[in-house]
Structures are given as C-alpha cells and as structure tokens.
Amino acid sequence: MHGMAEPLLLRMLNRTFFRASGGLRRPPTFDIDTTYPALRVLDRHRDEIRAELEPLLNGRDKLPRYHEIDRIQADISGRAPAAWRVFMLKWLAGGVEANRARCPRTAALLDQVPHVVTAFFSVLEPGKSVPAHDGPYLGILRYHLALKVPRANPPSIRIKDHVHTWVEGHSILFDDSWNHEVVNRADEVRVVLIVDVLRPMAWPLHLLNWAAIRLLGPLSDEARAAAANIRKYS
User: Fold this and answer.
1) In angstroms, rounded to a whole number, what is the distance separating the alpha carbons of residues 224 and 212?
2) Where does the pLDDT of residue 6 fall: very low under 50, low under 70, confident under 90, or very high at 90 and above?
C-alpha cells in the first residue's frame, strides 16, 4: 500500500494476505460485477467525471508529476522526458480537500464506493510509458476507468501475463501486486481514474486489512509527506 507504515508490518500483512488471496494462483484481473459491483457507479457517471476532468487538462502542465506527490514513485514516474501527472482525490493522510472542491461530483461519486483507499486522475503525457514494477501491498485491488484514450496507438497495460488495452469509457479491476507495466507510444494524453479499494476477504482478514490501512497508514511519514505535497500543488 502506498504510504504504509513500516516494512516489517507490511511484510507480515502481505504474508497473511498472500495465502488468503490464492498465492501464486491469484488472478491478475477480476470481474467488477461479481467482485466489486459498487465501482459501477463510476462507470455509469463517467460523462460527469470527464466533464470535471476537462478543465484540469486545460492546465495539465501545472499538475504535479506522480513522484512530486509520492516520493516512493520516483523510479516509475521520474524518468524523463515525458511526465506522469496526477490529481489526487483520496489519500490516506488527507490533503485532498481543495482538489475535491474542484471536482465535487467526482468526489461525491467516490464517496458512494465503500472502502476506497486512494483515488486520483492519472495523466500519461504522449509517449510516457511506465516500467515494470510490483505494487507493494496485497490488501488492495486497483480499478481503472478510462476517460481519455488516444485512438491511434492506444496505450496498454500488462498485468502478469494479461494485456489490457484501454478503451475510452470502459473499466478494469486488477491486482497490482502482480508485476505490471504500461506501454505507451501514443501522440496524445491518456487519462484514467485510478481507485484503490480493499481486497474482498473473509471478515477477520477484512478487519485486519481495514485497521492497517485506516489506522496505521495515515501515520506513516510517507503518507504525511504526500498529504503535504498534495496541498502544495492544489
């Protein structure tokens, strides 16, 4: 989990959730309707979300690059020349109040989805790919709602051995703890709404996951630093 408290605690949680999620047999992608149907409220209102996105894109050069918000992302975001820019709408330690005020409808829709951990607009500049990496935490699943996708050479994401090419208006739910990467050769921006939610698990593990994220996550130095950076760029 981005901004998780301590490496030892993270390893202990991942070891527990590894078994519960199916270990090496856990799937790379999930059916949204059976796994997390509450996310469909975002699909249904994608036009309203896109309407709030457009003014942000008019000044996208002012949006921070991902690693300027969350320093942990430097290896995958900081490679020049093209930029991976973000507009945060939900973060463990807060800092998003001004951003939510600029996108009130999107914020209200996100509030209808239970157990959202992180949410943000993810803007890949033309030609910006994301190198292969593993997400740090097994306790979440990641949702992408494609809001702007170039028609020529649309970018794609590989999750383990599954390749998904974004289609505007469509969504995907996947396990970002698997190795994944983005290949982008397009000449236009690609924008998705990224939403991290708690991985569905049996009640005792769900409670452990919820407590780790809600109670310990906001206390980490990384989460607090990111919250300060979100406010700085709002």
Assistant:
1) 16
2) low
3-state secondary structure 112-162: CCCCEEEEEEEEECCCCCEEEEECCCCCEEEEEEEEECCCCCCCEEEECCE
Between CA 177 and CA 14 the distance in angstroms is 10
Q: Which CATH architecture has domain 7-233?
A: Sandwich (2.60)
Q: What are the pLDDT digits (tens) for 26-85? A: 999 999 999 999 999 999 999 999 999 999 999 999 999 999 999 989 999 998 789 999
Regarding pTM above 0.85, the answer is yes
- 8 A C-beta contact, residue 155 and residue 183: yes
Per-residue pLDDT tens over the stretch 189-198: 999 999 999 9
Cα separation values, 156 from 129, 132, 181, 190, 195, Å: 9, 13, 8, 10, 18
Extents of the domains making up the chain: 7-233
Buried b (16+ CB within 10 A) or exposed e, 166-203: bebeebbbbbbbbebebebebebbbbbbbbbbbbebee
